[in-house]
Write a structure and sequence with these properties.
With 1015 residues, the protein is mainly beta. The protein is built from eleven helices and 68 strands.
Length: 1015
C-alpha cells in the first residue's frame, strides 16, 4: 500500500507530489481551469473525452480538501500511532474510534472494533489481607481517603455505630468474619479480579461479605445453575461482565464464575451481588444511613451483602479464586468488592466469640463424633418494631418456647438481622418452664443455667448480625417440654426485630430500667406497670439440640392469609398449625426429626413486606429474600415443606412469573444445598371476598378470590405437581362448590373467611403428609361386586410416590385384608348412605356376623412395641358380647385390642396384654362408657415414648391409660376379631368402614380431622 498526495497551491501557482509522506517534487503551474464535471477516482479523462490510465489494483480512503495542505499535514496523514488499550475487565469489548486528521476534520463518525480481552492473570495471595487493593470506607472528616466506586465511599462512623468495628468480628447467618481495618485510608477490601486466596478447613457453606458498585447488569431470568444465596430477583442490577451473543442480546459472561479449590478437585460458584445503593435492603447484611463523598456526606443508604455458596462437606477446602471482574476502578465500570470470607459449619460446630476484648477472640466448640446439631425450634424475624411506645433499655426478655425434638445439649441463637442498631446483651440463662395447664409461665422449674458467649456472660451483636450462645456443659432437652430463655438488654435502642403470631413461644418483658432479671424465680418483674407479654418473640430466633444424626425439616410458611386485615379470620396464636402437628408426631415416628416453623404471617414468595397494618409494613421479607437466614443456615436441614404462594396469587401474581421466577428460583436454591422441597399445593380460596385492605403505595388493596385468581391458583398447582414431592392440599381439603364448579375448602377445614384454615384443616394437611401405613376403605363390594373376598389397601395409592414420608415406612399400602368365613353368611358387602363420601360414593361397608366373619392381613402391618394408631368407623348390630374392631395377632395373644366391651353397660375400649402368653396379666385400659349402635368413629393411639394409650370416640379424647409397655405382635392384622389364649375370639357384629393404621401416635387435631372426614 502506497500513500499518494497531490497538492495545488493557487496562490503560489505550484503543484507538489508526496509519496508516503515524503515530498517527491514540485512544479510551477502557470494557470488552471475549473472542471465542472464529477470527481473521478482511478481514471483520467484525456483528449477526446475517454477515460484511461486506470490503476490496476486497489484504492482506499480518498480525501479532498478545499485548501492546500502543508508538508507537515501530509506527513501527519501518513504517519501511524501505537495506542495501547488496557481494559479493566475480561471478556468481549468494543473499541469505538472517532478519527480527526491534522486539519481538524473527521471521518464520517464512530467506528466500532470488537475484540476479546483476556482475563486478569491469576494472582495467588498469601492471605486475605495481602490481597486488599481498594479503600471503600472513609472517615467522615476526610472522605477523600475512600472511593468505593471511584468517588463515593462508606462512612466509617456509620459502620462503627452499627457495631461493625474495624478488626472486630461479625457473625451473619452462622458465618463469622473478621472485618479488615478501615477508616484510615488503608485498603479495606478486594476488587475481585481472579485472585486466589487461602481458605482452609471444612464446612457446609462458604460465605462472602461483598457489595457491588456501578452495577451494570440486570438479572433477566432465573438461572437454573445459580447456586448462591440469597436470591436477587430479576431486574436487580448486579456487578457482572457482559457478553455479545451475536444477536444484540446481552448476558452475563461465564468468566465471572469463581472457583472453590479442594484438596482433590474444585467446583465453581457465581455471585449476583446487587449494587450498594440501588440494591434491595431486604437481602442486605447491613444497611447504613449515609455514603461519603469528597463534596460532603449524603443521606443515601449504602449496603453490604453476604452471599453463601454450598460446599462439599466431605472435602477439605484449600483456597478460593474470586470471580474475574476488575482489579482497578474505572468510571462507570462494575466492581465486586469483597470485605471478608468465612467457612460455615453449622452442623457440628458452634463459633464462640468473645466481644469484650479487641480484637475479638474466636473459638469453636465441636460436638462429639456421631452427633450433630438439629433444629428444634425457630421463629423468624419479620422486621423491627416497637410495641412499648418508648426506647428499649436496661430490661429483661424472658421467652418460653417449646422444642420439637429431644437432645443431649442445647444452643440458642440471638439474631439481629433486619435490625438497624447494635444490641448489648448483659446476661442470658436457660431453664425448664414450670408451665400451668400445659401452657407456659414465667416461672422456672428448677434452677437457671447461665449462658455464655465466648466464655463471657454477655456479648455485643452488631446490626444485621447474630450470636450463638456457648452450648452449656449439661442441659438435655425433651421434645415438647417448655423451656425458658432469658436475656437482658443493657443499651438503648428504638426498635427490636420481632416475630409476631408466634404459637410455640410466649414472651415476657420486664419494665424499662429494671435491669438484669435473667435468674428471677418469682415472675414478679414480668407483671405490672411497664411490663409486656404475649405470643411474640424478639431477637431469639432459633434453638438447636444435639442428636445422634437426626435431621431437620422446616415448614416455610404458616398459611396465615392476610392475617392483619379487617375481613379475615385466621386462627389465633394459641392455635395449632401445620408445623405444630408435625412436631407433635415427631417423638413417636420411626425416624426422628426436628421441625422448625419458618412461617411469617401474610408472607409471599416474591414480594417483600407486601401489606401494611397501622401504617407499618407487615408480611416480612419474601421467602426468597430470607432463604439463607431462615432455611439454609439451619443445621442438618434435609427437607423443607414449602407452604407459600397463595398470598402471591391473591395479590396479583401471574402464574408464569410465580412459577418461573418464584418457585423455580426457590427450588434451585434448595437443590443447590441438597435440600428436598415438598410443595404444599395452594389451598382453595373459592368464596373469599377479600381482606378489605385499603390500597397504599407499594401494596395491594382488597384481594378477593375471583374466577381469574382461582384459575391462576390451579395453573400454579398444575406446575407444582411436576416436582418430585408435593402435598395435594386441594385434593385433601377441598370439595366442589356446586354454584360455580370451583373447589372450595371443606367447611370443617376453614374459618369464616373461606381462605384461612381451621385447626382441623391444618391437621388434615399433616395427615396428607404423614400418611397412614394402611388404609382399607372397605368399599370393595360396591357396584355389585359382593362376591369379593379381599379388601384392598389404598394408602400408597392416595399419596402415590410424591410423599417423602413413604420412604420411612415399612411396605405402606401393600397389605390387603383377606376376608374369612362364608360370603353372604359370615361377611357381606352392604350399603349405608350415611357413609357415602368422596372415596365411597354409594356408602358400601363391610358387614360381619359376629360369630365367624373377620378380615386378616397376610402378616404384620405394625410394630406394636413402638408407637402406632388405629382408626375405623364402626356400627354395632349387637351389644351382647365383647367385640374387637381391630387387633394384631401374636403367638397367643393380640398385641392390642380396639373395640367394644360389655362392662359398665357397654363401653369402647383400648387395652393391651402384658405378654404373649396364656392368661397374661392385663395392663391398664383406656375405656369409655356410652357405647351405642350408631355409627361411631374410634381411634386408638399408643405412644411408646410416654407409655400412654389414648382412646378417641367421635373425634374427642374419651379415655387415657398410662404405664403401658407393649410387645411386638408379629402376626396378622385383624379386623373383626382378636386372639386370646391362642384362640380367635371376640368377633365383631356389625359394620366397619374406612379402617386405617399409622406407624406413629396421632395428635388430637389429626383425629378431629379424621372424624370430620376432611378427605
Amino acid at each position: 500500500w502506497t500513500h499518494l498526495v497531490g497538492v495545488y497551491d493557487a496562490t503560489a501557482k505550484t503543484a507538489a507530489f508526496y509519496v508516503n509522506g515524503a515530498l517527491i517534487g514540485t512544479t510551477a503551474v502557470a494557470a488552471t481551469f475549473n472542471a465542472p464535471g464529477p470527481l473521478v477516482i482511478n481514471a483520467v479523462k484525456t483528449t477526446g473525452g475517454t477515460l484511461s490510465n486506470q490503476v490496476p489494483g486497489e484504492v482506499s480512503d480518498v480525501q479532498t480538501y478545499t485548501r492546500a495542505l502543508t508538508a507537515t499535514e501530509v506527513n501527519a496523514m501518513y504517519s501511524a500511532a501505537n495506542v495501547i488499550i488496557a481494559p479493566q475487565s475480561n471478556g468481549p469489548h468494543t473499541l469505538w474510534v472517532y478519527a480527526r486528521d491534522a486539519a481538524g476534520d473527521s471521518n464520517i463518525g464512530w467506528t466500532s472494533y470488537p475484540f476479546l480481552a483476556a482475563g486478569h492473570a491469576n494472582t495467588v495471595c498469601a492471605s486475605f489481607i495481602a490481597c486488599l487493593n481498594n479503600t471503600a470506607v472513609s472517615p467522615d472528616n476526610n472522605p477523600s481517603e475512600g472511593a468505593a466506586d471511584g468517588y463515593f465511599s462508606f462512612s466509617a462512623t456509620d459502620l462503627t455505630n452499627a457495631g461493625w468495628k474495624a478488626q472486630q468480628s461479625v457473625t451473619i447467618d452462622g458465618a463469622t468474619f473478621t472485618l479488615p481495618a478501615f477508616g484510615t485510608g488503608a485498603h479495606d477490601n478486594i476488587l475481585a479480579a481472579n485472585q486466589t486466596i487461602p481458605v482452609t478447613g471444612t464446612g457446609n457453606a462458604l460465605s462472602l461479605l461483598v457489595t457491588a458498585t456501578s452495577a451494570n447488569a440486570a438479572i433477566t431470568a432465573t438461572d437454573p445453575n445459580y447456586n448462591a444465596a440469597p436470591y436477587a430477583p430479576p431486574g436487580t442490577a448486579i456487578a457482572d461482565n457482559w457478553c455479545d451473543l451475536g444477536t444484540n442480546t446481552q448476558a452475563p459472561c461465564p468468566a465471572t464464575f469463581g472457583t472453590i479449590n479442594y484438596t482433590s478437585d474444585s467446583s465453581t460458584y457465581d455471585l449476583t451481588v446487587p449494587d450498594w445503593v440501588t440494591g434491595p435492603a431486604s437481602i442486605a447484611a447491613v444497611t447504613l444511613p449515609h455514603r461519603n463523598s469528597p463534596g460532603g456526606q449524603q443521606t443515601t443508604p449504602a449496603k453490604i451483602y453476604m452471599f453463601t455458596v454450598p460446599l462439599n462437606a466431605n472435602e477439605t477446602i484449600t483456597s478460593i479464586t474470586l470471580p474475574d471482574l476488575t482489579g482497578q476502578l474505572v468510571a462507570g465500570g462494575p466492581a465486586l468488592h469483597v470485605f471478608g470470607i468465612a467457612l460455615r459449619n453449622i452442623n457440628t460446630s458452634t463459633t464462640q466469640v468473645n466481644t469484650t476484648v479487641t480484637p475479638n477472640t474466636i473459638t469453636a466448640s465441636t460436638l462429639p463424633t456421631g452427633t450433630n446439631w438439629t433444629g428444634a425450634w425457630a421463629n423468624p424475624s419479620e422486621g423491627q418494631y416497637n410495641f412499648q411506645g418508648s426506647n428499649f433499655n436496661n430490661q429483661t426478655f424472658r421467652i418460653a418456647l417449646k422444642p420439637s425434638i429431644s437432645g443431649s445439649a442445647v444452643r440458642i441463637k440471638l439474631d439481629n438481622a433486619l435490625g438497624a442498631n447494635p444490641l448489648s446483651i448483659g446476661k442470658a440463662t436457660i431453664a425448664l418452664d414450670a408451665t400451668s395447664g400445659g401452657l407456659p409461665t414465667a416461672l422456672p422449674s428448677g434452677s437457671f443455667t447461665p449462658l455464655t458467649f465466648g466464655s463471657q456472660p454477655g456479648t455485643s451483636i452488631p446490626a444485621g448480625a447474630m450470636a450463638y450462645a456457648d452450648p452449656p456443659a449439661s442441659f438435655p432437652v425433651t421434645a415438647n417440654q417448655w423451656l425458658l430463655v432469658s436475656f437482658s438488654l443493657t443499651n438503648t435502642v428504638p426498635y427490636l426485630v420481632q416475630h409476631s403470631w408466634a404459637n410455640t413461644a410466649y414472651e415476657y418483658l420486664s419494665a424499662t430500667g429494671t435491669g438484669d432479671k435473667t435468674t428471677d424465680t418469682s415472675g414478679t418483674p414480668f407483671t405490672g406497670t411497664g411490663t409486656y407479654q404475649g405470643w411474640f418473640t424478639d431477637v431469639l430466633t432459633d434453638l438447636d439440640v444435639a442428636t445422634t444424626g437426626d435431621a431437620t425439616q422446616a415448614v416455610l410458611g404458616d398459611g396465615l392469609i392476610d392475617a392483619w386485615q379487617p375481613n379475615t379470620s385466621p386462627i389465633g396464636s394459641t392455635s395449632i398449625r401445620l408445623s405444630d402437628d408435625l412436631a407433635a408426631a415427631e417423638p413417636s415416628t420411626p425416624v426422628p426429626y426436628g421441625t422448625i416453623a419458618e412461617g411469617i404471617e401474610s408472607n409471599q414468595i416474591m414480594t417483600d413486606n407486601p401489606e401494611t397494618y397501622s401504617g407499618g409494613a407487615v408480611g416480612g421479607p419474601s421467602a426468597l429474600s430470607r432463604i439463607d437466614r431462615d432455611i439454609l443456615d439451619h443445621p442438618e436441614i434435609t427437607t423443607v415443606l414449602v407452604y407459600e404462594g397463595l398470598d402471591d396469587v391473591l395479590n396479583g401474581a401471574d402464574s408464569n412469573t410465580l412459577i418461573n421466577d418464584g418457585y423455580k428460583a426457590l427450588n434451585n436454591e434448595l437443590a443447590a444445598f441438597n435440600i428436598t422441597p415438598v410443595y404444599v399445593l395452594l389451598t382453595p380460596c373459592d368464596g373469599y371476598a377479600g381482606d378489605g385492605a385499603a390500597a397504599s403505595p407499594g401494596t395491594y388493596g382488597n384481594d378477593p378470590c375471583t374466577t381469574t385468581v382461582d384459575q391462576t391458583r390451579q395453573d400454579v398447582n398444575k406446575d407444582l405437581t411436576n416436582y418430585a414431592y408435593y402435598i395435594d392440599a386441594p385434593g385433601n381439603l377441598g370439595i366442589t362448590d356446586t354454584s360455580n364448579g370451583e373447589t372450595q375448602l371443606d367447611p370443617n377445614a376453614q374459618t369464616a373467611d373461606h381462605v384461612n384454615l381451621s385447626i382441623p384443616g391444618y391437621a388434615a394437611l399433616a395427615n396428607a403428609y404423614l400418611i397412614p401405613q394402611d388404609t382399607w376403605p372397605l368399599a370393595d363390594g360396591a357396584d355389585g361386586a359382593t362376591f369379593l373376598s379381599t379388601a384392598v389397601d389404598t394408602a400408597a395409592q392416595n399419596a402415590a410416590a410424591h410423599d417423602p414420608y413413604l420412604g420411612t415406612m415399612n411396605n405402606p399400602g401393600q397389605n390387603p385384608i383377606n376376608l374369612n368365613g362364608t360370603n353372604a353368611t359370615n361377611y357381606t358387602w352392604t350399603t349405608d348412605t350415611t357413609r357415602a363420601n368422596t372415596l365411597d360414593p354409594d356408602g358400601t361397608v363391610l358387614s360381619l356376623d359376629g360369630t365367624a366373619g373377620y378380615g386378616a392381613s397376610s402378616g404384620p402391618v405394625l410394630n406394636t412395641s413402638q408407637s402406632f394408631g388405629v382408626s375405623a368407623w364402626v356400627k354395632l348390630s349387637s351389644t351382647t358380647h365383647n367385640a374387637v374392631v381391630a387387633a394384631q395377632d401374636g403367638t397367643t395373644e393380640s398385641g392390642f385390642y380396639l373395640g367394644y366391651g360389655t362392662a359398665s353397660g357397654g363401653e369402647w375400649n383400648l387395652y393391651f396384654m402384658a405378654s404373649d402368653t396364656t392368661n397374661p396379666a392385663w395392663q391398664p385400659q383406656a375405656a369409655a362408657t356410652g357405647a351405642t349402635t350408631n355409627w361411631t368413629h374410634l381411634v386408638g393411639v399408643y405412644n411408646a415414648a410416654t407409655k400412654t394409650a389414648q382412646l378417641y370416640v367421635n373425634g374427642a379424647l374419651a379415655a387415657t391409660a398410662t404405664g403401658i409397655t407393649t410387645w411386638n405382635a408379629a402376626g396378622a392384622f385383624t379386623l373383626g376379631r382378636d386372639l386370646y389364649n391362642g384362640n380367635p375370639a371376640d368377633y365383631f357384629p356389625g359394620e366397619i368402614s374406612n379402617a386405617q393404621d399409622w406407624d406413629y401416635a396421632l395428635s388430637a387435631p389429626q383425629i378431629t380431622a379424621l372424624y370430620h372426614q376432611i378427605r
